Amino acid sequence: MLDTVVQGPDIDVLMNDIGRKAKAAARPLGFASTESKNKALNAMADSILRNKAHILAENAKDLKDVEGGSLLASFVDRLTLNDKRVAEMAEGIRTIAELKDPVGEVIAAWDRPNGLKIQRTRTPLGVIGVIFESRPNVTADAGALCLKAGNAVILRCGSDSRRSSQAIHACLVEGLKEAGLPEHAIQLVPVTDRAAVGAMLRGLEGTIDVIVPRGGKSLVARVQNEARVPVFAHLEGLCHIYVDKSADLGMAKEIIVNAKMRRTGVCGAVETLLVDRAVAETHLKPLLDGLAAAGCEIRGSGDVLKAAPGIKPATEEDWSTEYLDAVISVALVDGISGAIKHIQTYSSNHTEAVIAEDPAVVERFFTEIDSAILLHNASTQFADGGEFGMGAEIGIATGKMHARGPVGVEQLTSFKYRVRGTGQTRP
To answer: Are 323 and 335 in contact (CB under 8 A)?
Structure first.
């Protein structure tokens, strides 16, 4: 059971042992058959459905622990499980099982003039450490994705989701055992002591190959500042939508309300709306009315306040705030050039969308903005590995090294070169 009994130097002993077990499990996983991995994944999904009542009961205990606290509604929403979300968790694992096995895939192949035949092939990363807060579904998503890509994984959940994560993890281990795969391929850190996070960031004596944080800004900042191993991470989802003068107003209104209000606590929720000044008289008020009717608080720039008096004025801080709540900042901009300038100034390079019918505007948006995900005439809430057909994601990376955007099974692999010769020697 997860607890906080182990403290001090004993944490390092515990965590290093977990690292060694993960490293040992990663070796056979690296060449495990697709059939055995898929068998384990489907058995995990079956176990989650079979143990749904227990998972929900444990989740109810987690929710009771945070009841009456100062947590944002978005945080509680991410922590909450229900029948539908448990079913989606199981279905996500089955979808991962159906994905093409990336391990051993030939990414590129070519022949050299001297007769050498060279292939670049996918290979597992090894051992992945995942540190997350409040999202018990990450236990299933990360465990399944890492397994499919031939990696062992060490999961460290927050104290808020400890019971839910433990119940889900037990189902994953059951699936591993049923398929005859090493049960230490997916481990859940059994303590909530924050020293365990520090131990993972130090790499557990070289056994961890990459760290993936999923949580609030303070967690991700700590990981990026302290990690001695590579990190797949994003600090914030400061997502923007730009409505061009060529946009279809009805489409824009529907997309914006969905992008903000479908789930306000996800990293793909839009936080800033930019409207072309050329259509302020016709487009601005209907867009704001749609958001207000959905229960969204609106904070506007000075020119927005003049056009729509009565809303709250936006401060400079608002343009750099990931609300994760039913709040949005709104500004008028001078066409696509103004939108690009604003996004380049404030974006966290996560996800941006343009609503326009002018192909030249769309092309400029896609060419000049360097965020991980760009959308045209679609909600920013599609910034999700499942919606990209990846089954699930272990997170969304906004860096530029190795992985960017939704991190799925392919992004959880590296590559190696296979060179075949017929006796060649180098002159």
So the answer is: no
The enclosing H or E element of 178 equals helix 162-178
Alpha helices in 189-327 (DSSP H): 195-201, 217-226, 249-261, 285-293, 302-307
- Give the pLDDT of residue 333: 98
Is-contact 377 356, C-beta < 8 A? yes
3-state helix, strand, coil in the chain (%, to 5): 45, 20, 35
Residue 66, pLDDT score: 87
The first and second tokens of residue 211, run together, are 């760290």
Q: Which stretch of DSSP H or E encloses residue 397?
A: strand 396-397
Enumerate residues 6+ apart whose C-beta is below 8 A from 49: 86, 87, 90
- Return d(Cα 9, Cα 6) in angstroms, integer: 9
How far apart (Å, rounded) are the C-alpha atoms in residues 395 and 232? 8
User: Length of the chain in residues, anyone?
Assistant: 427
The closest alpha carbon to 395, from 138, 26, 89, 113, belongs to 138
CA distance 210 to 112: 33
- Asked if 138 contacts 144 with a C-beta cutoff of 8 angstroms, the reply is no
Closest Cα to residue 172, out of 185, 163, 156, 161?
185
> Quick check: 37 and 181 in contact, CB under 8 A?
yes
pLDDT tens per residue across span 7-21? 455 999 999 999 999
Asked if residue 241 lies in contact with residue 259, where contact means CB atoms within 8 angstroms, the answer is yes
Of 323, 373, 378, 322, give the one whose Cα is nearest residue 351: 373
**Which parts of the chain register pLDDT below 50?**
1, 3-7
Residue 93, Cβ neighbours under 10 Å: how many? 30
Instruction: Give the Å distances, CA to CA, from 122 to 134, 406, 423.
Output: 32, 18, 26
Which tens digit of pLDDT belongs to each residue from 215-236?
A: 777 888 888 889 999 998 776 8
What backbone torsions phi and psi does residue 400 show, to the nearest 5 degrees?
-115, 0
* CA atoms of 378 and 259, how far apart (whole Å): 9
Q: What is the rounded CA–CA span in Å between residue 389 and residue 284?
A: 34
Domains, in order of start, for the chain = 9-232+407-419 (3.40.605.10), 239-382 (3.40.309.10)
How far, rounded to the nearest angstrom, does the alpha carbon of residue 138 sit from its chain's CA centroid? 9
pLDDT in the model for residue 405: 86
